[in-house]
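Hi F.,

I've been meaning to write this up properly since the lab meeting, where we talked about keeping a consistent format for the predictions we share between groups. The idea is simple: the sequence comes first, exactly as it goes in, then the structure tokens exactly as they come out, then a line or two of notes. No screenshots and no reformatting. I'm using this chain as the first example so we have something concrete to point to.
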Amino acid sequence: MRHYRIVSRLVTLILAAGLATSSFAKSDEVFDVSKLPKAVQKTVKEQVADGKIVKMRKETVDRRIAYGVECAKDGRKWQIEVAPDGKLLLRAEEMALTNLSAAVQKTIQQSATNGKIESIADVTEDGQSYYEAAVTFNGQEKTFIIGTDGKLIDTQIPDNQARLPEIRSEDLPRNGEPKGGGYEKP
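Output, unedited:
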């Protein structure tokens, strides 16, 4: 199965406060497009078109450099990630639920039952298109990856969210008795 990055956490933070960076990432803000490599400049100009650049960053994650650009136009917001050679790595655009196909809307609504939809992004990554819906349930965020056909592909929990403890084999009960206390037989 294709590995999906958790873009919605980026999109959520972009829409609220700017590009997100992980604890393993180094990020430097860039103020002038002309300071970017020529190939990156070309891709950025094509993707921004007549929109406005809100923020640009040069990011290094796991020794890989990419340029993140937040864009906006007429209330629309999107982010792109560009490799140093100018290849478009990712485009994520904020979407309204009502602008999606009926099949995608239904899957998001079913997945978000008892939760609050925080953001929806139309994502194209490495030529693959899908949707990401960030939904909060009692303070914990889950990201639902949905295909363009409306099928649920994956559910993810961002790394910065609390996770249930893992059960180790040595913690499992033996002979029907709980380990580490419990009840005593009469």
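Notes:
The longest strand covers residues 52-61.
Residues 7-156 form a domain with the Nuclear Transport Factor 2; Chain: A, fold (CATH 3.10.450.360).

If this format works for you, I'll send the rest the same way.

G.
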